[in-house]
Amino acid sequence: MKIKPLDPQLASKVGLSFYVTGFQDYIGSRLLLNHSLLLQGATLASTAVEKYVKALLSARNQKAFGHLNEWSSAGIIRIATELSLNPDFFALLQQIYRMRYIDDLKAPVSFAIERSKFLAELDQTVASLNNAVEFRRGNERIDPYKSESEAARKELLENNIMFSGKGKAEYLQRPDLAEAFYIDTSLEILSCVVTGWIPIDLARFTEPGIVRVKNEYQCQLVATAA
């Protein structure tokens, strides 16, 4: 992650823009995920998290260059460790982001989106990033996350672990949808879908969803019947 100092007056404006649009992307992502558009929702989630991180850095008068998929593991791990976030989830978002620019694919991309696990991690990540920054307009704090939660906006609260009153293990104990994706450098795209009880193993965030073995494709998703 390449970071440079940013003029404080400009940083405030840039940061607020990232902060507000990041929240809007987050709401759009949740809406898509809850309506079973997993790749579309996860792609927007990667944009939302990128904007929140850039808002955080702007609040510190710093600017991050490039997109999420271009950031170094060391930079991401530093931020994840500081906020007690899961760096493996950031690694998954980086893989997902690569699907946006497949015309310049240097290596195959393969990942899985397990909806409940993805939503739980996304909601915890955004809540933590949101609490780590503060932007004001005069004496007024700008906080769309707080405003929408107080208004009980369905798109924010639906299937949101932060408002469920449950721990992660309990929250994830339900059958749900998962989808794996694979695209190679010839731009051949494959996917497989599973509905059922998804294993609660957050380390699997970084495992490929589909693998190619001797010219055959194998779906790595594992689930029992719903």
How does this model look, in words?
46% of the residues lie in helices and 20% in strands. With 226 residues, it is an alpha+beta fold. The chain has a single domain, classed as Four Helix Bundle (Hemerythrin (Met), subunit A) (Up-down Bundle), CATH 1.20.120. The mean pLDDT is 88.
Describe the SSE topology.
Layout: E1 3-5, H1 8-34, H2 38-59, E2 62-64, H3 73-82, H4 87-98, E3 109-114, H5 115-131, E4 135-137, E5 140-142, H6 144-150, H7 154-157, H8 168-172, E6 175-183, E7 189-197, E8 210-213, E9 216-219, E10 224-225
Antiparallel strand pairs: 1-2, 3-6, 4-5, 6-7, 7-10, 8-9
Short description:
By secondary structure, the chain is α+β, with helices and mostly antiparallel strands.
What is the CATH third-level topology name? Four Helix Bundle (Hemerythrin (Met), subunit A)
Tell me the name of the CATH class. Answer: Mainly Alpha
The proportion of strand residues reads: 15-25%
Q: How many H/I helices?
A: 8
CATH architecture: Up-down Bundle
Helix coverage percent of residues? 40-55%
Major sheet size, sense and barrel closure: 4 strands, antiparallel
Q: How would you write the strand order of the largest sheet?
A: 3-6-7-10
